[in-house]
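In the previous chapter we treated chains in isolation. Here, by contrast, the input contains two separate entities that must be folded as one system, with a combined length of 292 residues.
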Amino acid sequence: MTGAQPDLAERTEQHVLLFRLADEIYALPSIHVREVGRYRSYTPVPGAPPAIPGIVSHRGIILPVVDLRLVLGMPSIEATRSTRLISVVHEDIGMALLVDAVIDLESLPADAFGQPPAGLDPARARFLRAVAYHNDQTVALLDIGEIVTALREG
Amino acid sequence: MLLIVRTARRRYIVRREDVATLRAMTRSDNGRREEADSSVIAVELGPLIDPDDVSTAQRRHALIIPLRRRSIALLVDAVDAIIDHADIQPLPPLLGELLREPWTTGVLLIDDQPVVQLDVRAIARSILLQRTRASEQK
């Protein structure tokens, strides 16, 4: 996986995986997504940061579990029946993203995306590449590279 | 050679060579031994790593880790197995670089469940450092 992707404006469609955190809808470019799995308990690692509460095995590969709620400044919650782990890769770094629920894979027209609203909390806005309206709902397209950067900043 | 040790809620892997002695004991033995031999500091491994990992078992197994002047006894519920060789994997890159303490050296998959390998010598050094600082502040 490389970071060389066409800019949003150069594409006619953006293939994304839609998922939910609290009552907000988020999207990840499907190019990063390897698999979606049901939640299973993870193994905590001593001294790990709260946003990476543990590790799971995904087909024999050890992946860090990233609690996206904490990354985006939301409170963490107990897993439910709809909790999912999204296995993603960004520049050879694999992760299992913990989300409240996965909605579906969608192809959204590229021109549906626009700049995130200026009034957003900067701590959360840094993770958004763009915002779209889909089925009368706001969809925030996440920048997975920025998530990795933020995790490394601690 | 590796030991698989068990606390109330977790399993961990420990390198056998890091442990000088393995000793079975009860909680009351532990209190008496600390009174008799102040060179050994006994610490429950479970809550040291996870505050919720508290055992009520009376029977304890002590992993004795000698340091220069004192020894640390890490107490666990059980030593489940001793294995000759295992394919320990490194921690994933994103996590390995972010650990607050260098206590984890790798991961072993047992029945597809990751089990963390602990560096008990690093843990023992941290305990001793913490005790030394605490006594200096008194």
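The interface with chain A takes residues 10, 49-50, 89, 91-95, 97-104, 107, 109, 112-116, 118 of chain B (CB under 8 Å). The two ends of chain B are 41 Å apart (CA to CA). Compare these points with the single-chain example from earlier in the chapter.
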